[in-house]
Specification:
CATH class of the largest domain in chain A: Mainly Alpha
Oligomer: homodimer
Shape of chain A: globular
Number of helices of chain A: 5
Largest interface: A-B, 39 and 38 residues
Number of strands of chain A: 7
Strand content of chain A: 25-35%
Largest sheet of chain A: 3 strands, antiparallel
CATH architecture of the largest domain in chain A: Orthogonal Bundle
Structural class of chain A: alpha+beta
Helix content of chain A: 25-40%
CATH superfamily of the largest domain in chain A: Winged helix-like DNA-binding domain superfamily/Winged helix DNA-binding domain
DNA sequence: TTCATTTTGCAATTATGTCGCATCTATGTT
DNA sequence: AACATAGATGCGACATAATTGCAAAATGAA
């Protein structure tokens, strides 16, 4: 079971031209388990500092370049990364970010429509929609 | 005329409980003149380094806390700030950010509608919509 | 003008992210 | 299974954005 998962992750890495190193497997597992966008700092904590800071950044950059993950929102300080299967290109779903604890979540049941034109000569490549507010925990305090 | 403007700005500062210092007046003038979101770096350049870096940050934070400006989009590197009159609360207009030069613009004729629900207990306070792409200049190259 | 309170400038510090280089590891080949 | 090597990691140094402590200066109320 854990082996199946490992195999799936290993395959995913190799299919994308990346060696399946311990660090990469562990980071990618985190993304599958988390099911929500993660920042570098959170990954470091979840791995209990088993990996070097620079390595985590390099892993995230490699994943992003390969398309395994892509960078989602930035709350002013942190880049967050997530698996693209749920969130790709122009149909990117919105995200929620808590101003209390900084947690980020995907808003699956939230649909965004927009109409209008960009100026002449402008090209749109991606949209990012972020709802800021308070999560249930931070709302209490 | 310039005095009227200065007076208006001075009043705005005092009304919000902030002393009308030279630096604050100059920064706030910039925002009124620019009519678009500004990053700290741009402000420094426009003021030709007359103010210390730390002071600019403190001024921006003070303004943001007082509600005179608020932080808008981040293009991955820079926080940008803008006057709230054109962009307030849940009716915030979208922004465009060029991945080439990092320039940020307001999209006035661009309307965003969304429907759906946040999870239980979540409170939405603001929305941020960002279209990323290329501006006419960067498109050429 | 005087004076208490804030704000500023400067330097040092923290935080995020990148880079170079020596060492180590994953993987295809023998 | 052992080997060779392209590529990944750890470490330290560096780059940039932003914050903080503290002494000196400026604001604005009396």
């Amino acid at each position: 079971m854990s082996e199946n998962r490992d195999e799936r992750i290993t395959d995913l890495l190799r299919k994308n031209g990346l060696k399946a190193t311990k660090g990469r497997v562990e980071v990618l597992e985190l993304f599958f388990e988390a099911g929500r966008p993660l920042a570098q700092m959170q990954i470091m904590e979840m791995l209990r500092l088993k990996l070097d800071r620079a390595s985590v950044y390099r892993i995230l950059n490699a994943f992003a370049e390969a398309g395994i993950i892509h960078t989602a929102y930035v709350d002013g300080r942190h880049r967050v990364y997530e698996l693209p299967d749920k969130c790709s290109g122009r149909n990117c779903h919105p995200h929620f970010s808590c101003r209390g604890c900084g947690m980020t979540a995907c808003l699956e049941d939230f649909h965004v429509h927009y109409k209008g034109t960009l100026g002449k000569g402008f090209v749109a490549e991606r949209q990012k929609v972020l709802i800021e507010g308070l999560c249930p925990d931070c709302k209490k305090t």
